[in-house]
Specification:
Elements: E1 3-11, H1 22-31, E2 40-45, H2 58-78, E3 81-91, H3 93-107, E4 115-122, H4 135-147, H5 149-155, H6 168-173, H7 178-184, E5 188-194, H8 203-206, E6 223-226, E7 234-238, H9 255-259, H10 278-317, H11 327-335, H12 340-346, H13 370-379, E8 384-389, H14 416-425
Parallel strand pairs: 1-2, 1-3, 3-4, 4-5, 5-8
Antiparallel strand pairs: 6-7
Helix pairs in contact: 1-14, 2-3, 3-7, 4-5
InterPro entries: AB_hydrolase_fold (IPR029058), DUF676_lipase-like (IPR007751), Lipase-like (IPR044294)
Organism: Coprinopsis marcescibilis
Keywords: Membrane, Transmembrane, Transmembrane helix
Length: about 425
Amino acid sequence: MPTPIHLLVLIHGMWGHPGHMAELQRIASETYALTLGDSKLEVLVAETNREASTYDGIDWGGERVAKEVLDKVSELEDAGEKVTKLSVTGYSLGGLVARYVVGILLQQGFFDKVQPVNFNTIATPHIGLPRYPSLISSLAQALGPRLLSRTGEQFFCADKWSPNGRPILVVMADPDRIFYQALTKFKHLRIYANAINDLTVPYVTAAIEYEDPFAEYETNGVEITMDEEYPYLIRNHTISDTPPPQPEKVAILSRDWFKSFKFRKPIVPPALELRFPLNILLYTMLPLLIPTILSIVLVKFSLDSRSSRARVKALEKGDTSSSTQRLFHILAELEQDVEGAVVDFIDDPNPTPAYRTPVIKKKEHPILTNHQRRLIGWLNTLPLKKEFAFFPDVRNAHAMVISRDVKRFAAHKHGESVIRHWADSLEI
């Protein structure tokens, strides 16, 4: 009799590779090594959509990973084992790819024979990348769609993916489309978001929320209780109706003004945190290093984006119809029946949130588009369980939340408590 297999698929993020998911793979394997009886947990870390290939879009990434899943199932069957359950976890961009993958699997009848159990995302931009009232954010909104190829367009909802011109993120969140319907098949839906200090994927998009109660957590009166069993994970939080009184303004350059500065976060990224006296040398060279590094990064992004657009063009040209039609083409036929104006009329693009977070510093809060508000409304009709990580003393917690590189950065080990919560919460 074939051995029953629970297949756990892990999907990394933008510019990523399978090594980024190593700690999730290790901890999941350790947690369930001796507890499954006659069945077996098999972890598949997606490899086909990696590094420069992640520029090619959520859809092409999803096509690659879906094929990888189906190939793995066939490989296990050839070895005398049978996949009976499926769970999927995506990190960052990988969470969006995961949502596309399960749509493909549902369309192909995969879940007629395999039970979908756990669907998780970690620090995933579910509503795209929101704009903030700052110069850097405005530049990112303008340059991102150009420098990050097809994926960049989709991150910022600048694409016209469907025949009616709807962005792919809107189509994927539409309750009438197969991507949303695939999520409803899973027994458990859980998403993890960094409550603070995620400069890559901010709270509102990872947590799928209209407002950010943690943006000014030190001054807005939000009460946070941490989980004793899983450090760096919030057990619960409450928002006061009336924020505490704000400190009086002090004169610029006064003694109290200097005392008001808190340098808990590193000034430079972890890779550039050097010891004395090298750190002094680094700081003196920053005026020269910053424009040089930015120039190199922009050139690399431009070259990678150009290569990606050529690659996508070749993929689309060579995309011949077969017995298994690409999900894009099937959805294109469905989209012909949807009038965009009717959709906009039915869906209120500016719903009222269930609560109002006190806003003191507007620059800390995002400016959501009508598309993004619609995505939040639709996705929150799913039975989502939301978990919030809290890393107060880092500049960017995006990599830390999955312990992405513990060999190079010791601080990434703090993310292990979040990973263990994720592993313990899986139903295997």
